[in-house]
Amino acid sequence: MTSLRIVFAGSPAAAVPSLRRLAASEHWVVTAVTRLDSAQGRRAVLTPTPVAVVSDELGIPLVKSNRLDSNVTETVTGLTPDLGVIVAYGGFVREPLLSAPRLGWINLHFSLLPRWRGAAPVQRAIIAGDDVTGATVFRLVPELDAGDVYGHVTQSIGALQNSGSLLDSLAESGAELLTRVIDSLASGTARPEPQVGDVTLAPKLSAADGEIDWNRPAPRVVDLIRGVTPEPGASAIVDGARLKILDALVARDAAHLQPGAFALVGKSVLVGTATEPLELITVHPSGRKSMDAAAWWRGRGEAGSGSAS
Fold first, then answer.
1. Phi, psi for residue 93 in degrees, rounded to 5
2. Using one digit for the tens of pLDDT, what is the confidence trace for 202-254?
């Protein structure tokens, strides 16, 4: 098998397992491209991306840019790479960079393409109530996530998984798939196939996507909460203050509550939906740390009931 010269583009923690596997493989990561350091936390501390941190740890040359622009293209072209690999970089690869590597670019995408093309495939799959998802490695083309597929892995979506834990799992299984595909490209045995099936889109989520509509059925509200956790987060306005809801379950044996009506039943905080109530497990009140929902309710200094909008 020929050892390939690889340019890797990625930014978040989900890209790190792939970078580590490639660095430990027979191939040579000649550079990593990642986004610029960004302000994080309440103190706005300038923080490198997880890919930048691991690249420094592994001694991989690093290029920081928020766009794969002419400067990045010039740097990459000068390295004469055999293959470009992109995993959640956060930007588009366009010509002439798209054609710069001898074998082009491949992308690890966290869905079963063509379902959930776009920036938020894991979140959208959970929000939609999908039972199964996966990861796909495909050839990058100008059209969004539309290239021929080199391989995929499937995974059931656990009833208690949120988008954070599901993405962590797919990042690991996807990294293993990615290295197998690269080995097949190096040996000349890779056989890409066109995508088959209905196309669905997974646009980036905003804070507004996490606003809870209590008039929806309870299972769909839970799917939303799981899908937008940890980012951008599920929230509701409760008695005039924003409350983030991190974890909730359908309270199947509880008495009916009006949509958006809260009540303490025993030690459980319940809120009404269009069907069964939800039991809130963990919440994050504005300006405070995340906490058990019952502790939050007791700390409100009120008894009985409340309401959300």
1. -100, 115
2. 999 999 999 999 999 999 999 999 999 999 999 999 988 899 999 999 998 89
**At 15, which amino acid appears?**
A
Are the C-beta atoms of 144 and 117 separated by less than 8 Å?
Answer: yes
> Residue 284: enclosing H or E segment and its boundaries?
strand 278-285
Tokens matching residue 233 = 């987060």
Predicted local distance difference test score (pLDDT) of residue 298: 87
Question: If you search the block for the tokens 């495939």, which residue do you land on?
Answer: 121
**β-strand partners of 291:** 283
Chain center to CA of 112: 14
CA separation, residue 5 to residues 76, 98, 217 (Å)? 11, 15, 51
Two tokens at 62? 């690093």
Which tokens is 5 given? Answer: 């010269």
Pseudo-torsion of CA 18, 125, 222, 211, nearest 10°? 90
Quick one: tokens of 77?
A: 């072209």
Element (H, E) at 133: strand 132-139
Distance between CA atoms of 96 and 211, rounded to whole angstroms?
41
Which residue segments constitute the domains of the chain, with CATH numbers given? Answer: 5-187 (3.40.50.170), 207-307 (3.10.25.10)
Give the span between the Cα atoms of 29 and 33, in whole angstroms: 11
> Which sign, positive or negative, has the C-alpha torsion 127, 131, 135, 138?
negative
**Which residues of the chain carry a pLDDT beneath 70?**
1, 301-309
